[in-house]
Amino acid sequence: MRAHFEKLLKPSENQQQLPFIFPLLISLFSGAIFSLALAPYYWWWIAILSPALLYACLRGRNPKQAWMIGWAYGFGLWFVGAFWLYTSIHVYGDTNAFLSVLMIAFMALVMGLFSAIQTWVYRRFFPETPLTFAPLWVFFEWAKTWVFTGFPWLFAGYAFTERLIDGYAPLFGVFAVSFVVILLAAALVEILNRKLFWIVPSVLVLLGAWGASKIQFVEAKATKPLSVSLIQGNIPQDLKWLTEYQDKTIEIYKNLSKTEWGRDLIVWPESSIPMFQTDVPDLLDEMNEKGIEQHTAWVTGIPYWDLEESKNQGKPMFYNSLVALGDNSIGLYKKQRLVPFGEYIPLSGLLSWVLPSLQNDPSMSGFSRGTSNQQPLNVKGHPLAAAVCYEVAYPNLTRRNAQNSDFLVTVSNDAWFTGTNGPWQHLQMVQMRAKENGRWFIRATNTGITAFINEKGHIVEQAPQDKEFVLRGNLPAMQGETWYTRFSDYPILGFSLFLLILGWIYRPKNVDVSFKSRR
Fold first, then answer.
1. Which site among 65, 66, 114, 310 is 20 to 30 Å from 485 CA-CA?
2. 424, HSE (Cβ side, Cα atoms, 13 Å)
3. Do 386 and 447 belong to one domain?
4. Do 175 and 234 share a domain, yes or no?
């Protein structure tokens, strides 16, 4: 047994190495190109090439060098992959261009530490093999969902939404897809290094993905489809919160909705009502009565001021929320995860001089987090699991909300990132969440991308960006439960831990010697 694993886990020997500057530059480049694998480019093969180059650059390197190589990769990954933050910081944050780029560079340096620690751990404690590289990658992607509240973006598995190996998503979630991607990437390097036995596990995981795609976890209920209208108001972000434009905003949404009363459900996007519910009681009563009269449910995003909780806490408690009113409909969902620099300002007191125009924006400061035990919205007898904007980036949060639901609904305002890749990457995550949980996702946004996504994660209909639009669809309620909805991330995390334990136990003896000599 030990001899067998030592063969798999044997590190490279007598390997000629390039000067250290070359792997640093190659890693920086490979991280920078990774986002081309994601929406809106969909060059999925780059999700194989990018980590393959990183894996190759780490061969034979000591832990200290591995840290720098990983940090270079992580910096390139986040600086380019999340550069869409520039629009919210510079255009809407009224921060000069140089300082905006500097802030993104700082964010990339901080987020790049995930890759730096990952590669250091890989070369410090484990032998060089895809069987340790892939599970470590999974653990560090998972860590991005909770460390310092998380920034779960740019996962390798998203590159394969709707293609090739996404069959693993309803079984074990996006991290399982990422595991396979990284395993294939590292195996490719080994195959090119003439370790041809890696062809076998590569073929097996691809066949497994094909087989997994044939499993049907869910089916449509024997009820009539839900007729849904999504209202995209296309309100410019720089006008949205202006007092003088608030009535105009509401008028736009009301006018777009006039022809939709009589359908089962009308959905307005995140904060489409740019005032607290305490400021617009007449509007809410009007829409509720209109829905009851026309047999239509109405769901809208609105800032919510919880007066009773504010009294108990001794301070204002504001929430970014989703409310259901109208015919046979009720519910209030308070957002649990808030997005930094797109929704609130981290360390706002210290950064007030950096983002001056955002300090008085109600969408950017003062919101509280909703609790984790909230019930789905109830719409026309259907439980709708809610997610507001950034929350769909959190696989387990969406999974937890999706339990015992018929549909998933998310509202967003991606006007912060108009003209960037951000909204497209965001939409791709919604697709993965639909696939993981086997439910149709109803997605209403202010400026796009408004869409209907089926239980397989495929976009059935979508609205054009940056245009007033009404998107209509008839959606079947789904029943059944995917393995991912039932078991969460535990299977893939447990399997990854198992491989790492094996890698540690059966590591070749000379690995310990090399580690000691490199301290």
1. 114
2. 17
3. yes
4. no
- Record the tokens describing residue 410, joined without a space: 């998310």
Residues 454 and 507 in one domain: no
Same domain, 208 and 229: no
- Residue 15 located in a structural domain: no
Q: Is the pLDDT of residue 412 over 70?
A: yes
> For the whole prediction, is pTM greater than 0.70?
yes
Model confidence pLDDT, tens digit, residues 151-202: 999 999 999 999 889 999 999 999 999 999 999 999 999 999 999 999 999 9
With contact defined as beta carbons under 8 Å apart, do 32 and 80 qualify? yes
Question: Is 162 within the bounds of a domain?
Answer: yes
3-state helix, strand, coil split of the chain in percent (to 5) is 50, 15, 30
| Residue in this structure with the two tokens 């909703």, named with its chain if needed | 370
For residues 30 and 96, membership in a common domain is answered with yes
Q: Measure CA of the first residue to CA of the last residue in the chain; give whole Å.
A: 30
Q: How far is CA 213 from the centre of its chain?
A: 22
Question: Among the residues of 34-165, which ranges form H helices?
Answer: 46-58, 63-81, 85-86, 97-125, 130-143
User: H/E/C letters for each residue in 20-49?
Assistant: CHHHHHHHHHHHHHHHHHCCCCCCCCHHHH
Are 126 and 273 contained in the same domain? no
Q: Which amino acid appears at position 119 of this protein?
A: T
Q: Determine, yes or no, domain membership for 518.
A: no
Statement to judge: residues 135 and 80 lie in one domain: yes
Domain annotation covers residue 12: no
- Alpha helices by DSSP H, listed for 193-262, are 199-212, 237-240, 246-257
Report, as residue numbers or ranges, the catalytic residues: 270, 335, 389
pLDDT of residue 368: 86
User: What pLDDT is stored for residue 113 in this prediction?
Assistant: 97
Full domain range(s) for residue 121: 20-216+486-512
Instruction: Compute the distance between CA of residue 387 and CA of residue 230 in angstroms, rounded to an integer.
Output: 15
* DSSP three-state, residue 127: coil
**Measured between alpha carbons, how far is 74 from 292 in angstroms, rounded to an integer?**
52
Q: How many domains does the chain have?
A: 2
Question: What confidence score (pLDDT) does residue 315 get?
Answer: 85
